[in-house]
């Protein structure tokens, strides 16, 4: 089986009936490692399967839910503060990813953890946005020269901000994919089709939520939270109150230059959830090219969380190929070579001298 | 590399990849609370890894992986023991959100608990260890774990983690303790662990209501000076030593409120442990 049983049957399909305590122990380790504990519990409750959880694990699951509830409260507060801040400056913004799920109360938002708040502003508002944030104590995280240049010149977002008193990180996007790539996403359309939620916050339409999560998952070098993103997409597609308009979704992918990614998404949903994304009626044709096959080989393995508790998840080659493909989609070749040389050099030093070589105060 | 399973009373840890030295020390510190064979279930999973293949041989380094995360910098293999103990604390601070967790030591006498919330270096571990060997029971040297919507604090079967000069102070005054080897030159200085009780005796300890909150401050050469704090001052001060009040929301507030209503609050500067112990007995007897 390509996708290990623990990942597909237990985490994705919630087939937890009759698991032994040792199986629960292993399952829980993977959930906690990947910050999926609270969302898994919520999904179990929705299926009325929470009674399957052994007594020894109840408290740990409830702890995770308590933590995710606290994060939701924190996001609510930050959304309100950002609304007030940007209203003064007349800066229009749209929530993205985890914060957008919370603002829109989507089915995947319950129990889902996030590491930062993501927003999108118009590119023409970037300098005003930075000025407004700095006025209320947001600070730019310290980066090395290469990463600073990466964000400022090549990326689709500013260097990450953090708030030293509130303990929150903020990613300010001006588009959803690096402008140096050959692809173009119509951000005006994102704003135009956004939905107004709590506190007057704008959140992308369900189709845009799926689209953004999918390109974040598939057209990206980093799949650390790949399974979380795939669960998001599955829940948005199958359990959202607002039904997804599949033809609008297909148009979004194809018009933005992500036709292959849509095919890959369809295959991933089938691999992990046995879910058939109904693209046939929209005329979307699945690619069969060598490049597609290579990307499929890499991504379907890379999404699977690597864990000491799941056999056969050491897909290092697949993750490496996915990493290179992810960057190659984002950058022209000359830039890619320069970037990979820098990152590759650091990785070689880490492999020889240890992962922590570049961390301050490591021995 | 070896595996050990530790029962701290409140939770169970499964720890893999430890060095022989660390395994021997942990076995002695936890006696019957430590087992090599894995139980069916553990609350926390800790693994000690090499940081790279080369660093197995060239300036060897070990890193503690807690539930897949690596929150600490790596250390040489000889310094693994304190890292394991810190990792066990980190598990509770990061994942325990069904109880209110304070950075505080805890002692109990006559079924009444005193907690000593304080920042590192205030002497809370030294004080609790001294008291634990002199008529009180030490419930914890580092974390006070309170059941929600009560003011009851839980006993933890953990050794004291003593730093620098306090190691010798406790060795001189509490000779019945079992002491681990000293780990020199960690980022917190020299660390030694002291075990006050065997696992069987620990099992007789039960959850106990908090009666007093004492904020201790060791100040070399000072007399023992006590200040009585109002409940409002105590509430504000204890809040600064809490890990998860904000995460727990309403339950956190209610629990903190119960502790405040049922406790007396003191700030004490001291340099003499025996004198401080005498003062705490007076507080226990309601004389101040």
Please give a structural write-up:
The complex is a heterodimer of chains A (363) and B (288). Chain A has helices at residues 5-12, 21-33, 37-46, 55-89, 97-104, 126-135, 145-154, 187-193, 206-218, 226-239, 246-255, 259-273, 290-302, 316-330, 333-353; strands spanning 93-96, 117-121, 139-140, 161-163, 168-173, 195-196, 202-203. With 363 residues, chain A is α+β, with helices and mostly antiparallel strands. Chain A has a single domain (5-331), classed as Beta Polymerase, domain 2, CATH 3.30.460.40. In chain A, the strands form 2 sheets. A 5-stranded mixed beta sheet of chain A has the order 1-2-5-4-3. In chain A, a hairpin with a 4-residue loop joins strand 4 (161-163) and strand 5 (168-173). In chain A, 40% of the residues are buried. The model of chain A has no long low-confidence stretch (mean pLDDT 89). In chain B, helix 6 (231-239) packs across helix 8 (250-262). Chain B has 9 helices and 17 strands. Chain B has helices spanning 20-30, 80-95, 124-132, 165-173, 199-202, 231-239, 245-248, 250-262, 273-284, and strands spanning 2-7, 12-18, 34-35, 44-50, 62-66, 99-109, 112-117, 137-140, 143-147, 152-153, 160-163, 178-179, 183-186, 189-195, 208-218, 225-229, 264-270. In chain B, strands 6, 7, 8, 9, 10, 15, 16 and 17 form an 8-stranded mixed beta sheet that branches. Chain B has a 5-stranded mixed beta sheet with strand order 3-1-2-4-5. Chain B folds into 2 domains: 1-95, no CATH class; 99-288, Rossmann fold (3-Layer(aba) Sandwich). With 288 residues, chain B is α+β, with helices and mostly antiparallel strands. Chain B: InterPro entries: HprK-rel_A, P-loop_NTPase.
